[in-house]
UniProtKB/TrEMBL annotation:
It catalyses: Thiol-dependent hydrolysis of ester, thioester, amide, peptide and isopeptide bonds formed by the C-terminal Gly of ubiquitin (a 76-residue protein attached to proteins as an intracellular targeting signal). This is ubiquitinyl hydrolase 1. The lineage of its organism: Eukaryota, Metazoa, Chordata, Craniata, Vertebrata. PROSITE patterns: CAP_GLY_2 (PS50245), USP_3 (PS50235). InterPro entries: CAP-Gly_dom_sf (IPR036859), CAP-Gly_domain (IPR000938), Papain-like_cys_pep_sf (IPR038765), Peptidase_C19_UCH (IPR001394), USP (IPR028889). Keywords: Cytoplasm, Hydrolase, Metal-binding, Phosphoprotein, Protease, Thiol protease, Ubl conjugation pathway, Zinc. Its EC number is 3.4.19.12.
Length: 533
């Protein structure tokens, strides 16, 4: 059964746009799938027409099969019959390829060397997604072949930049959603696709059939090896979590992350905080808590994190390998800020407990920090205020600051006053978003600033709620990086209404931002002891 959405001012749009439409609208789709001969049904599909969004394959002049998605159908200038403009799965160097131009006219836009225009009759349905027929007439999702036990024991490393576009981008890619699983799908995809921040596992408390091995064997390894995890594997993992609600209900990602890191991966808390003069506190994630008046209308994660920690009198005891920051919101609906800028680099130098700091005014080594100066409107409100002894005295002579109580910083021994401060930074590698109770994620997959992908485990669906399945989709979204690469001043004045849908979604729906310590990741990648085993 096909579902469509009808707009009175537009044509009907097939919800399952990766499957072909049929020339005869009087033909009952259900009758095709009731045929006993499977080959007859496949023949009907191969003889059909296509629509924008259909996934197809084309034989190139040199005999190579090329796969892509139809982005345009029509009669181009200088031609007589229908042609299709394809956006290819991966870059294909040819004199016929472009970025959506054909001749002197642009028909659509995509990455260079990934657009190909061919006669429509040369297109065939993508054979990678030809399906078997189930007894009730609904096509089964593509089957995945199990790997050998030797491969199951391997620790597949995170996908690198060259592999992502060819292995992950497209339909039926990533983790297939099923029965309120989007919170789990988006979280697992964010944590394990291209990052090794949570790969270190202590499996001494786990057997070969334990849950951490199931996570690695059924989800992490297939995701990294083949780019697809079927819904059955996700459901099997959910059953192993030990609570029936994990198989039927939607959970909050922070609840799942705590169980995943503590009980599945057996990891110590990622974050260790120290309050001034108090013992340390541990956590797996950090919930940002600020007052709205403390920041502007378009705050960054950098601003929010600093204000949250200073206001709570908290500092990191050490640089975390992975920092998962929850945005300031209450539940799934109420957001304190309509939009938040996910800082691509997070400078945590000034929120480390035992670290050299820089004087806010003169730049020399700081000796004092004053939380009361945080929101001083004459001293850049919202910025952490740290002073050398001289500047601290001068600032607090002012009558409006005589009630402030700056405290002495605990600094490394024997650091010269004019020594440069080594900045400690963490890199953004994923953003978990939510809109109307549905979770999706953005993932940074390589060192190139434009290496971003968008993942939705339930982007599309084939069949109805009882007899269908979800179609996960992954899209490349370099425009996200283009927007975030602007300076804070440019971002503050940017016309957000002119941004693409994905950029607006990233800014408006951010639920968690995930950062990794690239130095520790480099060190761990060189160690055989820190891996999923």
């Amino acid at each position: 059964m096909f579902f469509s959405v009808l707009d009175l001012n537009r044509n009907a749009v097939t919800r399952i746009n990766s499957l072909p439409s049929y020339k005869s609208h009087s033909l009952k789709i259900g009758s095709i799938f009731r045929k006993q001969d499977v080959s007859n049904s496949i023949q009907v599909l191969s003889d059909c027409s296509f629509e924008v969004g259909s996934m197809v394959e084309v034989m190139s002049d040199n005999g190579m099969t090329i796969y892509g998605v139809i982005r345009w159908i029509g009669v181009p200038e200088g031609k007589k019959n229908d042609w299709a403009g394809l956006e290819l799965d991966s870059e294909f160097i040819s004199s016929d390829n472009s970025d959506g131009m054909f001749g002197t006219k642009r028909y659509f836009t995509c990455k260079g060397n990934t657009a190909l225009f061919v006669p429509l009759n040369r297109c065939k349905p993508d054979c990678r997604f030809q399906f078997n027929l189930s007894l009730n007439g609904i096509p089964k999702p593509p089957e995945t072949h199990s790997v050998t036990s030797l491969e199951d024991s391997d620790n597949v490393p995170p996908l690198g930049e060259p592999e992502i576009l060819s292995r992950l981008v497209g339909r039926m890619r990533g983790i297939q959603g099923h029965l309120n699983s989007c919170y789990l799908d988006a979280t697992l995809f964010s944590l394990f696709t291209s990052s090794s921040a949570c790969d270190g596992v202590n499996t001494s408390a786990d057997s070969e059939e334990g849950i951490s091995h199931i996570l690695r064997r059924d989800i992490v390894n297939p995701l990294r090896r083949s780019g697809f995890v079927p819904a059955e594997s996700v459901m099997n993992f959910r059953k192993q979590l030990g609570c029936k609600s994990f198989t039927t209900e939607e959970k909050d990602p922070e609840e799942f992350i705590a169980i995943l890191l503590k009980d599945v991966l057996h990891l110590e808390p990622l974050l260790k905080f120290r309050s001034h003069g108090e013992l340390s506190q541990d956590a797996y994630t950090h919930q940002i808590i600020v007052e709205k008046k403390q920041v502007g209308v378009l705050p960054s994660v950098q601003q929010l994190l600093e204000i949250s920690l200073v206001s709570s009198d908290l500092k990191f005891e050490e640089i975390p390998s992975c920092l998962i920051v929850q945005m300031p919101r209450f539940g799934k609906k109420f957001k304190m800020f309509s939009k938040i800028i996910p800082s691509t680099e997070l400078d945590i130098t000034d929120v480390l407990h035992f670290s050299s700091r820089q004087c806010f005014l003169c730049g020399r080594l700081a000796d004092y920090e004053c939380p009361h100066c945080l929101m001083d409107h004459k001293l850049q409100p919202g910025r952490i205020k740290q002073y050398c002894s001289t500047c601290n005295t001068q600032v607090h002579i002012h009558p409006s600051r005589q009630e402030h109580a700056p405290h002495k910083l605990i600094l490394p021994d024997h650091v010269p006053a004019d020594a440069p401060v080594q900045r400690k930074t963490m890199q953004l590698f994923a953003v978990l978003c939510i809109n109307t109770s549905h979770y999706v994620s953005f993932v940074k997959y390589g060192p190139d600033p434009r290496s971003w992908i968008f993942f939705d485990s339930m982007a599309d669906r084939y069949g109805d709620d009882n007899n269908g399945y979800n179609i996960p989709v992954i899209r490349a979204c370099p425009e996200v990086a283009d927007f975030l690469s602007q300076s804070e001043e440019e971002l503050a004045t940017a016309n957000l209404s002119q941004c693409t849908d994905l950029v607006q979604r990233l800014l408006g729906d951010a639920y968690m931002c995930l950062y990794q310590n690239t130095e520790s990741q480099l060190a761990s990648s060189m160690s055989t002891d820190v891996s999923i085993t």
